[in-house]
Design a protein that fits this description.
The chain has eight helices and eight strands; from the N terminus they run H-E-H-E-H-E-H-H-E-H-H-E-H-E-E-E. The chain is of the alpha/beta class and 211 residues long. The strands form three sheets. A four-stranded parallel beta sheet has the order 2-1-3-4. It is globular.
């Protein structure tokens, strides 16, 4: 899981798959509140970068599974050994996961160790126990504006700590806001990890380290 985009160690993603690069699901729903053209370009950026690594990326748009049985999105994701979850608004992403049932499908497969979960920014942020604190950098009301519904504040609980990207990353426009999130967590005693752009949080079995 990267602070920003592929990070500086894309080779580790290939190693985790333990097979030649193949199909990978791309979840870009963190951009659902953005204008359609901006979202489209964002998806193309991710798929292009993944193709350069040898993958065959295919978007799984969680909006297509809203208010349908969770088994349907689980079936769609079952075809992939890996998923790439791109950045954007963490609250918008978490809402899409909840409304589609992808949260249950992904957490189940992660606990079974049958999928590699990779991505950056909002992608790993939603793996935390809670999204509280991220409102300092992402607008939770974007969920209401886009869908007329309330944001989901619970994270997926895969990580036992919060994830704060873009810290000490002068080239990123949100580095100051993410620094405020990290400071809030420090002052409140919330367990968290901070990453600067280029770093990757690697979790492989019992191994957990930043590279």
């Amino acid at each position: 899981m990267s602070s920003f985009r592929i990070g500086d160690r894309p080779d580790r993603l290939l190693e985790l798959l333990r097979v030649e690069a193949g199909e990978i699901a791309v979840i870009a729903n963190a951009m659902d509140a953005a204008p359609a053209e901006v979202r489209r370009v964002g998806v193309e950026l991710e798929t292009g970068a993944l193709r350069e690594l040898g993958f065959r990326p295919r978007e799984v748009d969680l909006r297509e599974y809203f208010d349908r049985p969770g088994s349907e999105v689980a079936t769609a994701l079952a075809a992939f050994p890996a998923v790439w979850v791109r950045g954007g608004n963490a609250f918008v992403l978490r809402y899409a996961m909840a409304r589609s049932g992808a949260d249950t499908a992904l957490t189940g497969r992660l606990r079974e160790d049958t999928i590699v979960y990779a991505g950056y920014s909002a992608g790993p942020c939603v793996l935390a126990p809670s999204l509280r604190g991220l409102e300092l950098c992402d607008n939770p009301q974007s969920v209401t504006e886009a869908w007329g519904d309330e944001p989901v504040w619970d994270g997926l609980g895969i990580l036992d700590h919060a994830f704060v990207p873009h810290v000490d990353s002068p080239g990123h426009p949100e580095t100051g806001l993410c620094g405020r999130v990290a400071e809030r967590y420090r002052s409140d005693g919330v367990p968290h990890r901070t990453l600067r752009d280029g770093q990757v949080l690697l979790i492989d079995g019992d191994e957990s380290r930043i590279i």
